[in-house]
Design goal:
The chain is α/β, with parallel strands linked by helices and 230 residues long. Helix content is 51%, strand content 11%.
Length: 230
Amino acid sequence: MTQTMTTQDATVLVVDDDPEVRRGVSRLLRSVGIAVRTFASPQRFFRERLPAGPACVLLDLCMEGMTGLEVQEALGRNGRGVPVIFLSGHATVPAAATGFRHGARDFLEKPFRPEELLAAVRQAIEEDRRQGVDRHQSELFQHRYERLTPREQEVMALVVSGQLNKQAAVELGISEKTIKVHRARVMEKMEVESLAALVLIAERLGVASTPESGPDDWAEPAGPCLSHRW
């Protein structure tokens, strides 16, 4: 994959209270064709919506009013999961450990080398690109699942757990013929052609349970602060 293909639709969000760092990072990233948005404080950063496309956040560890770790924690609560790269003049081991534990992509000590920053940014952007594809697919599966009636959702849960049609019929107190009708509608609405595909989607949505029967029973019937100057 070429550099342009990798970053042309991406945005880097720079949150740092040092104007020289913001200018230097912004100039470097724009020189290689990466879009940049800069913020002098976490408060200004949180007033903006995160980009819909691939992105990453370059986040100063030590800022007044709100630390980088606190910003990272707040980001983690919005469900977007945008990759974070910390920038720090003196990143301590405990701070680094906390950041990584909460999903930080990297830690760069100021002053950092341009090639070091660019490499970290490109890796973070690709990570967010992959996560974006996963998020879109999960949202698509969730939309299909929500089209199922409550009874069809019950049937789906039983089928992906490994129960045969006759077992599911006993469980729900309905006929085996009715189970087959519901099962066919589930397959149609979830847009899958095999039980294996339905099981994978169910696991992704968190509606699959542990099979109660052996693997053979799964077969279908026949028929995720010190800032330095640039």
